[in-house]
Amino acid sequence: MNFDLRLPIGLLFSILGVLLSVFGLLTPAELYRKSLGLNMNLWCGALILVFGAVMLGFALRARRAEMK
After folding, report:
1. String of b and e for 8-46 (b: at least 16 CB within 10 Å)?
2. DSSP 3-state assignment of 18?
3. Fewest CB within 10 angstroms: 1, 5, 8, 10, which?
4. Are 66 and 25 in contact (CB under 8 A)?
5. 2 within domain boundaries
6. Which residue ranges does UniProt annotate as crossing the membrane (predicted)?
7. CA distances (Å), 30 to each of 1, 24, 27, 42, in order?
C-alpha cells in the first residue's frame, strides 16, 4: 500500500473547517460589522470543510480502486 497524501490533507482541512465553522456560529453578530455583516468565519470554514471532504473522497476512492 502506497502513502496517499490526500488522506492527511483531507483530515487536516476537515478538522480545521469544522473548528472555524463552529467558531463562526458561536461568535456574536456585532463582531462582523467590519466585514459588512458577513460571517466570514462561517463561510470560510464551510469552504475549507468542503475542500477537506473532497480530498477525503478522492483518497477513499483511490483506496477502493487499489483493493480491486
Report:
1. ebbeebbebbeebbeebeeeeeeebeeeeeebebbeebb
2. helix
3. 1
4. no
5. no
6. 40-60
7. 50, 12, 9, 14
Structural domain of residue 58, as residue ranges? Answer: 7-67
Q: Is residue 1 part of a domain?
A: no
**What pTM was estimated for this model as a whole?**
0.86
- The three cell numbers locating residue 23: 467558531
Q: 41-57, pLDDT tens digit by residue? A: 999 999 999 999 999 99
If one counts the domains in the chain, the total is 1
As separate numbers, helices (DSSP H) first and strands (DSSP E) second, the chain gives: 2, 0
Residue 7 contacts residue 56 (beta carbons within 8 Å): yes
